[in-house]
Description:
This protein has a domain at about 5-40. About 35% of the residues lie in helices and about 5% in strands. It has helices spanning about 5-15, 25-40, 70-75, and strands at about 80-85, 85. The mean pLDDT is about 90.
Amino acid sequence: MLSAAEVKKIAHLARLGIEEKNVDAYASDLNGILTLMTQMAELDTTHVQPMAHPMDQLQRLRVDEVTEVNQRDYFQINAPKTEDGLYLVPKVID
Length: 94
């Protein structure tokens, strides 16, 4: 169970401003969330298949195909330094 002091500390660390009158309500809400998470952690999910969407819907994906012409050489004309199709930049980390 989170105490009012712990809620204040969490709010400070998260840089959240909370009013003193709301601290007990926040503590109660956070304790409810943590209790629910504890209950969910106890469930056996061994045979549950992971889902990408909670409604078991499919994403409409576009076909992965090239739609533009490769212009790398054209763009690299303006670069100060290139080598083997790569942009060369100054070293910034030793």
